[in-house]
Design goal:
alpha+beta, 6-stranded antiparallel β-sheet, 7 helices
Length: about 220
């Protein structure tokens, strides 16, 4: 079977003429548009299982530059091209219906000699009508934060508490931070499997850097009597 990266590169070649502000990085199969406040990216994901053909999907993501820099600075590391404030995987097709998009968002069972011309129009449809709308939708910090807090299905993040609290720090929004802390503790009390140790380690760093925004707080592993 053809190398999965080769198919990804062919998909990028189809898309780049219409995405003039995006730069393609072959090693990451990533299309990225870097802006002052927000950066947008599309990662082309091609996977295969022996004998069952190929699956083509996309990761769409938006990084708020100030938020991601704050998180990286607290963790004493550099911001990477993979740092995204929100993202979504196109296999989760119903999530994109919130943007009013009803077309295909991923393709499975593609044959060994995939003729991309057969699905080219659908791929363009997803990028032009859905991915670009996703980027526009999340070029708003408050909307990003609300999506992560409410888990509305349109955004994902491996450690959403970091991004939510970092945005609280950027916005100096002590009231929202207090409400979010209460929400997290309530979720833990009701059995939600949050990484308590990771949260507390990160939160200590926030309090040291932004004492006027964040109160002293420690997430407890269970409800106190």
């Amino acid at each position: 079977m053809a190398n999965t990266d080769e198919i990804a590169h062919r998909v990028a070649d189809l898309l780049l003429p219409d995405l003039s502000k995006f730069r393609y990085t072959r090693s990451r199969t990533q299309l990225r548009r870097k802006g002052t406040d927000f950066s947008d990216d599309v990662i082309i994901s091609v996977t295969t299982r022996s004998g069952t053909g190929y699956t083509l999907a996309f990761y769409t993501g938006v990084a708020h530059s100030e938020t991601e820099k704050l998180v990286a600075d607290l963790e004493k590391r550099k911001v990477t091209p993979y740092d995204r404030t929100v993202f979504q995987y196109s296999v989760n097709q119903t999530s994109f219906q919130q943007l009013g998009f009803e077309g295909n968002t991923w393709w499975s069972g593609l044959p060994q000699k995939t003729d991309l011309s057969e699905i080219e129009a659908e791929i363009h449809g997803f990028i032009d009508e859905c991915a670009l709308s996703y980027f526009d939708h999340f070029h708003d910090m408050s909307r990003m934060r609300h999506s992560l807090v409410t888990r509305d299905g349109l955004s994902l993040n491996l450690n959403p508490f970091k991004q939510v609290l970092a945005m609280d720090a950027v916005l100096k929004d002590a009231k929202h931070a207090e409400g979010f802390l209460d929400l997290l503790q309530e979720e833990v009390n009701h059995g939600c499997n949050h990484d308590v140790d990771s949260f507390n380690t990160f939160y200590e760093l926030l309090v040291e850097s932004f004492p006027q925004t964040f109160p002293q707080f420690k997430l407890q592993t269970k409800l106190r009597a």
